[in-house]
Protein: Zinc ribbon domain-containing protein YjdM
Amino acid sequence: MSEPVCPSCASEHTYELNGLLVCSMCAHEWSPDAETEAEPVIRDAVGNVLADGDTVTVVKALKVKGSASGIKAGTKVRNIRLVNGVGDHDIDCKVDGIGPMQLKSSVVKKLS
Structure:
């Protein structure tokens, strides 16, 4: 039987210690009884927690099929929606000049 994944960083490198489960990657500790299928926390490129309706900026230039220019770094994207998209695309949004699309949370940064 394999150990469960870490609820904090989703690492598969966990072990049991004194009745608690411990992640060897981020040192997060949790009780095996507290395991529930909670909705995963989606974080941006710098670790900020994202929520529906947030405004984010794109941190690196992205190529877009069907668009000559793509999305430039620093482009603001307003009113995002968090979804379980294709692959690891977890943000559904509308980019000005491009249209509706899905982005990865690893290429955006939340604005304060």
